């Protein structure tokens, strides 16, 4: 393909991010600063450059469990209201500088109460950071409150999400190691959210296979799937002329259930062998509701623009493909229909049209 989108041009494109963890996107310099300020002494390195290298190497193991261990240090420095507000504010700045116009950023409030903060104080501190950052950098950020699937606080966190949904919390999520902790353990929380007309996504089909996806959708009623890469296991002859979809894959496609795919992270955790072999290729060809995301920008050493650039390189995507992913994400966001439509028609499509025109000029 000629006129391939370059990384610089992709950074200028108005992008939408649905799957990004607040504790997975800290700046190394901020981690070092907060460790000094809060007295956290467990860092593997004190210098920001060395910290960045350590996180990259520790995250690139091919194991989801090892990948999750790196969060002990980022969460460790996020135990005060001031730290949470700073991290959220800088997250908004970093995303805006990468051309993201709308983002949903998730975090687990229960992980930030070690020094005495209440769940409400945690949520309010993060909301303040995003509100200030959104105002200063021109980005809209909604938050998802995450419950850890190996704990027993999902109902408490679900109630918290509903309580703050008019203040910037747009949805709910469960995360953590999938094996041994099926989403049905938290069925009461999902049923409560459905009764409250609230939105939720579930990490499923990343480290575990089709049963995880099936439970998330058919038992729990997930609006979206966090990752969902293993849906590819229900498609045969997927690289041939006539791929055959199993019943679950056909249901996911027919119902337009969004897949929050994170290419670099999926490779790091072993959910995909490489970017070129990532299921996003065949799933895009089959018109699943695929979205592109970062997951953890620090651990994966990435940005949303870089994720798109890797897909351009691997699959020869052009501007139409990148716009398709972006519109998919905006359609799948947990904000109101009018707001989504305004961003699609007023920001995303005009922004991509200008970039496409420039590339052909």
UniProtKB/TrEMBL annotation:
Keyword list, A-Z: Hydrolase, Metal-binding, Nucleotide metabolism, Zinc
Keyword DNA damage in record: no
Residues annotated as domain Adenosine deaminase: 14-349
Family stated for the protein in its record: Belongs to the metallo-dependent hydrolases superfamily. Adenosine and AMP deaminases family. Adenosine deaminase subfamily.
Cofactor mode of binding and number, as noted: Binds 1 zinc ion per subunit.
Cofactor(s) needed by this chain: Zn(2+)
Catalytic activity entry: adenosine + H2O + H(+) = inosine + NH4(+); 2'-deoxyadenosine + H2O + H(+) = 2'-deoxyinosine + NH4(+)
HAMAP family reported in the protein's UniProt record: A_deaminase
Sites where the protein binds substrate: 21, 23, 176
Pfam families: A_deaminase
Protein name: Adenosine deaminase
An example Gene Ontology CC term for this record: cytosol
Taxonomic lineage: Bacteria, Bacillati, Actinomycetota, Actinomycetes, Streptosporangiales
Organism this protein belongs to: Actinoallomurus iriomotensis
Function: Catalyzes the hydrolytic deamination of adenosine and 2-deoxyadenosine.
